[in-house]
Design a protein that fits this description.
The complex is a heterodimer of chains A (552) and B (291). In chain A, 54% of the residues lie in helices and 12% in strands. Chain A has three domains: 269 residues, Orthogonal Bundle (ABC transporter involved in vitamin B12 uptake, BtuC); 167 residues, Rossmann fold, CATH 3.40.50; 76 residues, no CATH class. Chain A contains 22 helices and twelve strands. The radius of gyration of chain A is 28 Å and the shape is elongated. By secondary structure, chain A is of the alpha/beta class. The radius of gyration of chain B is 19 Å and the shape is globular. The chains are: A alpha/beta (552), B mainly alpha (291).
């Protein structure tokens, strides 16, 4: 049953599945890998020397290098114009690319057209498995790095990932190019295995096979593609061994098994493997706090808004707002529903560009600067509807939050340098401290979407704190909390401001705001109607009117 | 003129097929990759109904639509409903529908074998018309009429009827729709049934147009259907109609001026151009998702 060719094809299938894994892990669905493989296979066969002249292994090495480069280059060419596409749009665009490559190959002279191109068979099972091991090594080592976590964060929630300072575009392109390079390796190995390559080898069916292998195996842990490929390659072999040969039964059973796996094993075959994550002890030596920037001294202006407005097609969400926020100040922003509070903080954090006016936030112009740069300048926030990375544990969420204050570890981890381990442990300790600060260290290994509502809000604050921000924006953090929880939260927020952070707190709970804020700004219909000390603002007749309406 | 008409005939079938894709995507935000398998299955079933059952070809169409609707219900129940609420439902739905498609094609292979099937020679009336110097058969007129009627009818259904209101409510926000008393599961199932019924009629018409049915015919049209809905705007029904006709005409002219080798490239050139220049498609509205 385990013939030489079966063993080889398991490895090839797994390598191809890894090229899907590379992008699926970052939440992208690309079907262009067959196109990358095709480009790589034909280019390398054309360029690489003849194995009979230079020997099998040197020829294959050259071909692999050429193929990997060609695949990666094709991914860049396709990726740059299509990276702004999402979900199925990206899938269809990349599928279109693969199909265009196929039609080109079919009609070009040098590729042999439909007849195909004959290639010497050089690949042995050993070679195929060595290449697979190298590819798997890459994904194994890159998973638990800053880069790997950033990709996972993008998969879970792109917007929140950007707000944590992750350059979403660059990371997505990076994943795409990895997919191209790995698909290139597959294309070359395939060519030097099957003796004759034709355009049909890299068609729609091939792309679907690769996707299916990756999904069946599981896309959250690096052994997934290997399991998926073994499973799908072995089905026909086992069926043959059992004597189930009738033409239609084989595809039927294959389809049935595929359905069963995808319906009943969420996360694929590898989804059953638990992810290990050691929660560090807080007294693990005396690691220094992770910091990147010099915080503005207490009392310095960190945000200066001048005439800031936002219109949505005639609706003035925010109108002509002038506001300064100072370091060490806890500023409350209140106002009735629909007053424009969230729009205002979206403009400050760079998610929404103002229609007019200027927002100078820690030296960058928010709205004209990509979100991750605003975050890098020292702005960190929570969201009104919590935007956690749902399938990651609480601790991992906070680790992503620490993206800006930790150092990249990918290359060093690939090389097994001890400094990478040190940096990873420092990041873990930092994340654990932030969790501890909001009192959630006990829940470190719980998946964030399994947490209670109040815990999710606190986790979001921990994640925001992990970025060591100068300005912390909290969008209704106490919503859905009971009075005891809200009281604890109030003490926490006050202590953050006392540490020297500038805190902008949006809250509906007016008594909480009165209790802890240094200064309160009231927004109504997009305009500031009152600002000042909490007691004065609460007594302001316009504020009472906005909240309770005028007496008739 | 002849070319233009030929393009419209094939294009109206593309449109009918793509409308099924667009309906499910527009309302449920899911790509149903079992749609092409239903398309192929109904072609074979249509041929069997005419050959063995002795139905005239026009009576076979409603019968095929019913079979298609049943298949659509099965696809929804088996491949999509169990995934409800899973975070990876988007990708998992692609895989589960591919799996169901594979099983369906396997069953076709069991029942009909791998050979090409044809309608009996006298199944279609030989009536021909002269339209502005071009030859048109009665069958072709029927194809265009059926396709246009169904697409327009569906657009009306979604825009005006109670069921259509339910569909649009589900498209906007399934949870809110449920709270407001819309039976989301039933609307979803109905959407799949209608979508598959249209795909089934498209399959039968396609088989009549080229007078053959093959196991691979579904995957051949699959990519074109995707191109059509991208060009038209993913969830847009009028967009799918215009996109389908546009693709049909463009292909016919590509064959004439560029040679048949490049015919299939047209769909992807269109697709790419649209995605880069106007990702929401010709008729699609942009759906913004923000904080």
């Amino acid at each position: 049953m385990l013939t030489e060719s079966t063993v080889t094809f398991i490895a090839l299938g797994a390598i191809f599945a890894f090229s899907f894994y590379a992008v699926l892990g970052a939440g992208q669905l690309s079907l262009g890998q067959a196109g990358f493989a095709s480009v790589a296979a034909y280019t390398s066969v054309l360029v690489a020397p003849d194995p009979d002249v230079v020997g099998d292994v040197p020829a294959l090495l050259v071909a692999l290098a050429v193929g990997m480069t060609a695949g990666a280059a094709a991914a860049v060419v396709l990726g740059l114009p299509t990276m702004h596409l999402r979900g199925v749009f990206l899938a269809i665009a990349t599928l279109g690319f693969a199909e265009a490559v196929r039609i080109f190959v079919l009609n070009a002279e040098w590729t042999g057209g439909a007849q195909g191109m004959s290639v010497p068979k050089v690949v042995t099972p050993t070679i195929a498995w060595i290449v697979l091991a190298v590819v798997a090594y890459w994904f194994w080592r890159s998973g638990p790095t800053r880069y790997g976590r950033a990709l996972e964060a993008i998969r879970e929630d792109e917007l929140a990932a950007g707000a944590m300072g992750i350059d979403v575009g660059r990371h997505r392109l990076g994943a795409f190019v990895t997919a191209g390079a790995v698909a290139g390796l597959y294309g070359v190995l395939w060519a030097y295995t099957v003796r004759l390559i034709g355009p049909a080898d890299f068609g729609f069916t091939a792309a679907i096979d690769g996707l299916v292998t990756a999904m069946v195996g599981g896309t959250t842990i690096f052994v997934g593609p290997v399991l998926g490929s073994t499973f799908l390659t072995m089905i026909p072999e086992i069926q043959r061994a059992l004597g189930v040969e009738a033409g239609w039964i084989r595809p039927f059973v294959a389809g049935l098994l595929l359905l069963v796996v995808i319906l009943f094993l969420p996360g694929g075959l590898a989804g059953r493997i638990p992810r290990r994550l050691r929660v560090p002890s807080l007294h693990d030596g005396d690691r220094p706090e992770l910091r990147t920037r010099e915080h503005a001294p207490r009392g310095d202006v960190v945000v200066r808004l001048a005439g800031l407005s936002k219109d949505y097609g005639g609706v003035h969400a925010v109108r002509d707002v002038d506001l300064e926020i100072r370091s060490g100040e806890l500023l409350g922003l209140i106002g009735p529903n629909g007053a424009g509070k969230t729009t205002l903080v979206n403009m400050i954090s760079g998610l929404v560009a103002p229609s007019s006016g200027k927002a100078d936030v820690l030296g960058v112009t928010a709205g004209r600067t990509p979100v991750h740069r605003v975050a890098a300048a020292g702005v960190s926030r929570t969201f009104q509807h919590s935007k956690l990375f749902g399938r990651l544990s609480a601790l991992e969420n906070v680790l992503v939050g620490g993206h800006l204050v930790t150092r990249p570890t990918l290359v060093r981890r690939l090389l097994w340098l001890p400094s990478a381990r040190r940096d990873e442990r420092a990041a873990l300790t930092h994340a654990a401290r932030c969790l501890d600060r909001v009192g959630m260290l006990d829940a470190a290994t719980t998946r964030s979407n399994a947490l209670s509502y109040g815990d999710q809000r606190r986790l979001e604050i921990a994640r925001a704190l992990a970025a060591d921000p100068t300005l912390l924006i909290l969008d209704e953090p106490a919503a859905g909390m009971n009075p005891v929880e809200a009281g604890e939260l109030a003490r926490l927020i006050r202590s953050l401001a006392d540490d020297g952070l500038a805190v902008l707190l949006i809250e509906h709970n007016v008594s909480l705001v009165r209790q802890i804020c240094d200064r309160v700004v009231v927004l109504d219909f997009g305009e500031i109607i009152a600002a000042g000390a909490p007691a004065d603002v609460a007594a302001d007749p316009r504020v009472v009117e906005a909240y309770l309406g005028t007496e008739a | 003129m002849q070319q233009l008409l030929n393009g419209l005939f094939i294009g109206s079938i593309y449109a009918l097929f793509a409308v099924g894709f667009a309906l499910v995507f527009g309302i449920l935000d899911r790509l149903n990759l079992a749609h092409p398998a239903v398309f192929a299955a109904s072609a074979f079933i249509g041929i069997e109904l005419v050959t063995v059952g002795g139905l005239p070809f026009w009576a076979a169409l409603p019968a095929v639509a019913v079979v298609g609707a049943l298949l659509g219900l099965i696809v929804e129940r088996v491949a999509f409903r169990p995934l409800k609420g899973r975070p990876d439902a988007h990708f998992a739905g692609l895989i589960s529908s591919i799996a169901v498609a594979g099983m369906l094609i396997a069953l076709l292979q069991w029942r009909y074998g791998a050979e090409t099937r044809r309608f009996p020679a006298d199944a279609f009336p030989a009536t021909r018309f002269d339209v502005l110097g071009a030859q048109v058969t009665l069958l072709q007129v029927v194809i265009v009429a059926v396709c246009l009627t169904l697409v327009v009818g569906l657009t009306w259904l979604v825009a005006r009827s109670r069921l259509g209101r339910g569909m649009r409510a589900v498209a906007e926000n399934p949870t809110a729709a449920r709270v407001l008393g819309v039976n989301v599961d039933r609307v979803t199932a109905t959407t799949f049934a209608i979508s598959a019924a249209l795909g089934a009629v498209a399959g039968a018409l396609f088989a009549m147009n080229v007078n053959s049915a093959q196991l691979g015919m579904g995957s051949a049209i699959e990519l074109k259907g995707l191109a059509v809905i991208v060009v038209g705007g993913m969830g847009s029904l009028p967009g799918a109609l215009v996109g389908g006709l546009l693709l049909g005409v463009a292909e016919v002219f590509a064959v004439q001026y560029l040679g048949s080798a490049w015919r299939d490239l047209i769909a992807f050139a269109l697709l790419f151009g649209i995605l880069l220049l106007r990702p929401q498609g010709l008729f699609g509205g942009r759906r913004a998702r923000q904080v």
